[in-house]
């Protein structure tokens, strides 16, 4: 059951812009109220076509994206967004099947919230994902083989070729690169990349599969290794 009054938590500037993509006006209004009371700027779209126009015009810092939308579905919007940018996306869905959640993550979503939800739960996820989307902010660049990571800029290059990673993918790769050759299990990687999420450990497999696909495009897929029954490691 949605709560009807916004909370009082506030954040300091800068004020991120959150795009709320939701076709149920009551839910959208409540989410916008909570976001604004927490110091965020908001834009709203009621269908997938309007959402894509606003993404390109307003350049939001985060998108709250419902799965079931008129005109263009939420997953199609997500695919279009990911083809153009790494803007953080949190999916809002009434679907409870794990396959739907994994499909959204496979397409590049950063997190998901299942309806019915409490607005404060969504606010906590928004703050967590925005926090994860910021560069780590400290530490020298890391180099593992042909791979170079700059934590100050959250940038990754393979032999000078830039990789476009989501915030979650970058955090996973940065954590692995911090201890080359060490095997990390799913629980360790989940805590490193998605500490406030309620996602299951198998979600890590989806993010790493996407990461491996991007490394493969740069001829570096063999660096990310799966150790059967144990976890994952990054090797030079």
TrEMBL record:
Record GO biological process: regulation of DNA-templated transcription
Keyword Transmembrane in annotation: no
Any single Gene Ontology cellular-component annotation: cytosol
Record keywords: DNA-binding, Phosphoprotein, Transcription, Transcription regulation, Two-component regulatory system
DNA-binding residues: 139-236
Protein name per the record: Phosphate regulon transcriptional regulatory protein PhoB (SphR)
Domain Response regulatory intervals: 17-130
Modification type 4-aspartylphosphate: residues: 66
Residues of the OmpR/PhoB-type domain: 139-236
Gene3D superfamilies assigned: 3.40.50.2300, 6.10.250.690, Winged helix-like DNA-binding domain superfamily/Winged helix DNA-binding domain (1.10.10.10)
Gene Ontology MF annotations: phosphorelay response regulator activity; transcription cis-regulatory region binding
Keyword Glycoprotein: no
């Amino acid at each position: 059951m949605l709560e009807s009054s916004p909370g009082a938590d506030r954040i300091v500037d800068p004020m991120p812009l959150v795009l709320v993509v939701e076709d149920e006006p009551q839910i959208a209004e409540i989410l916008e109220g909570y976001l604004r009371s927490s110091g965020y700027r908001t834009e709203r779209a009621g269908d997938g076509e309007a959402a894509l126009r606003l993404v390109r015009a307003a350049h939001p810092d985060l998108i709250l994206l419902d799965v079931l939308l008129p005109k263009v579905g939420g997953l199609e919007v997500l695919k279009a967004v990911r083809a153009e940018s790494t803007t953080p996306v949190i999916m809002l869905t009434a679907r409870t099947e794990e396959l739907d959640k994994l499909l959204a993550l496979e397409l590049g979503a950063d997190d998901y919230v299942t309806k019915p939800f409490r607005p404060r739960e969504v606010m906590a996820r928004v703050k967590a994902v925005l926090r994860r989307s910021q560069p780590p902010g400290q530490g020298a660049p890391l180099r593992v083989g042909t791979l170079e990571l700059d934590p100050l800029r959250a940038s990754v290059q393979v032999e000078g070729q830039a990789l476009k990673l989501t915030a979650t993918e970058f955090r996973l790769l940065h954590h692995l690169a911090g201890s080359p050759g060490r095997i990390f299990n799913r629980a360790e990687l989940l805590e490193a990349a998605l500490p406030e999420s309620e996602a299951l450990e198998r979600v890590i497999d989806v993010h790493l599969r996407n990461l491996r696909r991007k490394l493969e495009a740069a001829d570096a897929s063999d660096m990310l290794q799966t150790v059967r029954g144990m976890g994952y490691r990054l090797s030079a």
